[in-house]
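We close this part of the discussion by returning to an individual protein. The encoding preserves chain order, so positions in sequence and tokens coincide. The sequence in question and its structure tokens are set out directly beneath this paragraph:

===
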Amino acid sequence: MRVVAIAQARLGSTRLPGKVLARVGARTVLERVVDARRDAATLDDIAVAIPVGDSELVAEGSRLGVRVVEGEELDVLSRYVHAARVLNADAIVRITADCPLLDPSVIDELVNRFRSRPSDYLSVEGYPRGVGEVEVIARAALERATEDATKDDDREHVTKFVARHVDRFSVVMLRAPDSFFRPSYRLCVDEADDLEAVRAVHRRLGEPDGPVRVSDVVALLDASPELVEINRSVHQRS
């Protein structure tokens, strides 16, 4: 089974334009997302899927030495399918490019679970948002979804169609361990307050160049409620 990671990225975010090129420490948000995938031992390849003609992201991908695949801007589902075909993937790890503190060990945990007990879709819920959110989806399921999904919301959010059609796909939803179950903690970057929170956590962790671990993030946030408050008012879009 060939498992590849595909990160969706664009500069035209409505809430925080250009966020994937913002810096967290010495590196861009996108660079940290790519590094997390490179630190995962279970992946066969990595690509960034971007809208056609986004020259700044093409340049950033070249700087990072990662393959860039261009596709539809708003139809992210078709963009993923195109990237999966280009990479000849059997399964795809999907994480958005706004999670610079992603723990690569969670990727390995889910990919190993997927390899040992294949399904159409596998995800884990309950980790701090942006630190342990990982989805694995079979390319065959993604291909079926792109044929059947007609709603704009399903095509924008890639895996939503498969995840909610449990009558048509084999869907496995895992729960984060109790010691790391903190779904109210938020470390993905959608708005300016999110970026401030991520930067603050990264600084308090000692500005590590290598992977950030869920255990360290949870311990820090449990002991530092002021960090949690930075972006508490931000509402996650469904």
